[in-house]
Amino acid sequence: MPRIPLTWLAEHTELPAGTSALQVATDLSRVGLEEEAIFGAQVTGPLVVGRVLELVKEPQKNGKTINWVRVDVGPEHNEDLDNPKDPQPGEERPSRGIICGAHNFVEGDLVVVSLPGTVLPGDFAIAARKTYGHVSDGMICSGDELGLGEDPTGEDGIIVLGRGHAEGLTGEPGDDAIALLGLADEVVEINVTPDRGYCFSMRGVAREYSHATGVAYTDPASTVEIPSAEDGGLAVRLRDDAPIRDVEGCSRFVALEVRGVDPAAQTPRWMARRLTLAGMRPISLIVDVTNYVMLDLGQPLHAYDADEVVAPIVVRRAQKGEKLTTLDDVTRTLDAEDLLITDSEGGEGARVLGIAGVMGGESTEVSEGTANIVLEAATFHPISVARSARRHRLPSEASKRFERGVDPQLPRVAAYRAAQLIVEYGGGEIASRITDEGGIAGPAAAPIALPLGDAERVVGIAYTPQQVRSSLEMIGCTVEDGTGDGAEGTLAVTPPSWRPDLVIREDLIEEIARLVGYETIPSVLPTAPGGRGLTRAQRARRAANRALAEAGLVEVTSYPFVGEGIFDALRYAQDDARRGAVRLLNPLADDEPLLRTSLLQTLLPVARRNLGRGEESVAIFQLGTTSLSRGEGSRSPVPAAAQRPSDAELEAILGALPLQTRTLAAVVGGASGPGSWQGEVAPWGWADAFDLARRAAAAVGADLEVRQTERAPFHPGRAGELRVTAADGTSTVIGHAGELHPAVVTEFGLPARTSALELDLEALIASAPAVIAAAPVPTYPVAKEDFAFVVDQSVPAAAVEAAIVVGIGDLAESVHLFDVFTGEQIGEGKKSLAFAVRLRSAEATLTAEQIGAARSRCIAAVDSAVGGVLRA
């Protein structure tokens, strides 16, 4: 985000005296530039100029030599009398005594002194303190301590006025050093939306500040002196061998040479200070000038060592296998869509100098000995730059601006501005010829037809014709009356070159609303129609979540991204459909490029992480989406944006989308609660997983049927599939629950016998009746009967339960399985299922004959349905 020093902003617009950073941020917010942060003055308090009166070197026992210095800091700040602990016989002039470890100054030098009460960068407060046998009444400051960075001369030590950081500066003891060194600057950091790239410059922000406050504005581009120069400078050829969507990658390329620059020339202090405040590190005069002009005007520049460049420069697409070592010392393999700047060493366009609009290469970078340079100022296609920056994970200040759109009229202006600054501070001579390949004017923007009434129609409040015209003219648009049939009351609006985001009439209307004032648009809340609320699905999802939370589980959220190794960790078979995951083209992490196909794939790592943070048990759940790929051949077409996609295109798009559903999953393991003096609590187990699944189903009004099964990642003998039965009698598997496989428990470091469940919540909700009738309160007593049936091991308990309900009929109020028994007494391949049955009539108290008849019907129904025999 751009940082705006107020003193720099004031060069391009009238900033009223005493304006604070907070006020500037408030003004900018009115025109849509949101405040990100405010940085106050880096130094506060009494920072003054001092003259060294006396310097006594005192060797210490640790081998270090310190200076005991008497400093005149002006009548206002000098002590009236010498500190009695540090008497100075014969000293008549009041002064301050300070301990200093630096040795780059002598008696008579003017230095910068922070007196007690000063606060330096990093919230470092200065106070008088006793050290080395003296009371040091302040501190003599270095450039680093004041936030000015390293001394440009390379000299270590404190600041001495007249050289280094303070070259050309002087003063008298007691003068305010904050103002002298420019340390009072306040800075506003703003958030710029992608459509307003022109605000990545002081030029753009100053213009917006002028719009917000009505103060005068001077375009810095208009103040640059552009001499008349002949074409024919360094040869440049624009060539696009592989255009992206038939758009050339470079529409304009300006090259300007400056020769005879002093390699030892230092960046002026004011420029280095501004770069630092704007968030950039000063490097060298040539590099700093290109950065300064970019921040000021918004046009990225690049400087080449002219002695290393072999003409002609060629702008082209990369070839397969080409490599480039960029300025960050990383060798990168280039892509065929990368737009490159090359020269002709080894043949035309043979050597790569940089990735256009992103970063230059090492081979021609400016070094400490560079005296002759070539300045590049170009206009690159935003999409090409954005793709290269993301492809190589190489964001830069240049790419940040190019991908948002740079004023195509700026390259020549920016090149001369940078050349003039380099010559002013580093000497040398600007070449009499310039290369401006691609055309000076550039493509003209097409006028946009804007009916005067459209702003009111879209925004909802009335704008006068004068407000419409003045707002558009304020941002630099050319506004003319429309011509031709039906043009009455219509404006022809031509956007300025620095606003490539203005392409349709709605863009212009947004500017009108913004400049007239968002505060003039009333806030009107729509009236909610009565009788509406949450949908049935929303209520059901919340009910399922609440059921698990009330059971003692904690809801968590996990990212839906997984790595390929998770499938083997969960012991999926090679042909398991859950291996068919959707692969992301641009994943957040290279080791997690897939979307999960099961919620347990991300929930189990969360359980492991919680246990790793000191938890002794786990009881968590999540409601999230899972995605399943439709196969390798499923690719969605990309319809044109100019019109609505056809029905066939929409059908093809929907057919290529992954199969996605909402899933509810839970993991429980370890102790089910805290221990107490009464003893240890029971651990979570596989039965709890089934109980939790039933709780969630009951909350949405559905019933679950459980059948034993084998499915990864569950224990083969302690897992079951969860089924629902539709109105037509068909049974569908919607989930699984049970104890996790021991290998999976070990893989994720979970407590022994950890269990889990996973439900397709959308299918569960769809299976529940839309309306649940309230059951009347019974008024007659219940009759209790218990049955134990011997059946084959393969017969599910749900089938026996269904037979009991059918046999007894309307008298069956509830049927509950309370025991399963196997053993020699039952017989090999057999099991005993014991059910508690409750009978009740809504009409009268049941008689013994009615109960006996119901019992007989139950036994007969179970025998007929599953071959069950009543156990004696």
From TrEMBL:
Residues 443-523 form the B5 domain. GO terms for molecular function: phenylalanine-tRNA ligase activity. It comes from the Bacteria. Residues 73-96 are annotated as: Disordered. Its main location: cytoplasm. Its cofactor is Mg(2+). CDD domains: PheRS_beta_core, tRNA_bind_bactPheRS. SMART domains: B3_4, B5, FDX-ACB. Residues 778-871 form the FDX-ACB domain. Keywords: Aminoacyl-tRNA synthetase, ATP-binding, Cytoplasm, Ligase, Magnesium, Metal-binding, Nucleotide-binding, Protein biosynthesis, RNA-binding, tRNA-binding. Residues 73-95 have a biased composition (Basic and acidic residues). Gene3D superfamilies: 3.30.56.10, Bira Bifunctional Protein, Domain 2, Ferrodoxin-fold anticodon-binding domain, Nucleic acid-binding proteins, Phenylalanyl-trna Synthetase, Chain B, domain 3. Binds 2 magnesium ions per tetramer. Residues 41-172 form the TRNA-binding domain. Its EC number is 6.1.1.20. It catalyses: tRNA(Phe) + L-phenylalanine + ATP = L-phenylalanyl-tRNA(Phe) + AMP + diphosphate + H(+). Mg(2+) binds at residues 501, 507, 510-511. It is an enzyme of class 6 (ligase). It holds the Pfam family B5. It is found in: Cytoplasm. Tetramer of two alpha and two beta subunits. This is Phenylalanine--tRNA ligase beta subunit. It comes from Brachybacterium tyrofermentans.
